[in-house]
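Record type: monomer structure entry
Structure origin: computed from sequence
Chain ID: A
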Amino acid sequence: MSQRMIAAVVAGPLVVVLLALAAFAPLPYVTYRPGDTINVLGVESGKEIIQVEGHKTYRDPGELRMTTVIVSRPEQENSLLELMATWINGDNAVVPYDSVYQEGVTEEENDIQGAAQMVSSQDSAIAVALTELGYELAPRLEVQAVIPGSPAAGRLEVRDIFLEANGQKVTSSEDVIKAVSETAPGEQVTFLMRHGKVNRRISLTPEQVDGEQRIGVTLGQGYIFPFDVKVNINPLISGPSAGLMFSLAIYDTLTPGSLTDNEVVAGTGEIAPDGSVGPIGGIAQKIAGARDDGAELFLVPPANCADVDDVDNGDMELVLAETMHDVVEALEAWADDRGADLPTCADLAQGEARSEVRQ
């Protein structure tokens, strides 16, 4: 037997082992799959998703569908074979881990962040819808998440509003952070909180975390609304990307007639307090889910226009969603005339090109 043949016989099993290890070794990638679409004008667990007390509501058969994506978890290990099995389906995607999660993030940290984003999304959606209806709202600082086992656990609740910290009026997150950080170890910091329609004083003893005083809450912008509006959505769904659809559903619920003319409209987009629509992840998977669930229109955030060129949207029309106000106007035009000229990503591109020419 020649030396070449002997080398091949010896190396062959080693190559097989190395290939097997490579096929099953975890790789730093995250998988995206189309998730459920949910009619936010509908019912969840026997209760209407958009719940209102103190204002007349209008319930119509139209549908406004928020879209979701099934994303592999931060600590989930995906092998080459698993990634290839996901990628082979054209509606799925495989993306680098660090484009979705921060390195070293835990499942609990990810869940807390996602829950806080959902609270912020809902509150901004309510504020934008009410602003569209003519209400003037002053932003306040609120609790958007409470860390289990922290000093705030069981004492403060999500959507509690900060009014005072150690007797001083709270106008920003810096006021709360300053009051907590200046509290001597073992001493208490006292807050005046707005819980629902009741004010209450809460004293907490901060704990040391990484050398800093903490009470264990995530802070964000909230509001004191003129009447009660709640979004009753499955708590397992998190993140900010349903903000636009929440805002449209709240507006539709508080105004007579169907914003969608009793048809099915889907979409996505983070809603900012000024009503502008921000980018989201997994738009191709969200479009696929809406397409399969029979939506006629899909609302696309401007920053995601570059991501939809090669997406299979079937017969579903893709509509540009720059602001919540723009979308309301577009849907009203479409309800009056199915052939209405609705804004598209192409319009956005043309507008940018004209701007560059002027410059």
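Annotation 1: The helical segments are 3-24, 80-87, 107-132, 173-181, 243-253, 283-292, 324-336, 345-358.
Annotation 2: The two ends are 76 Å apart (CA to CA).
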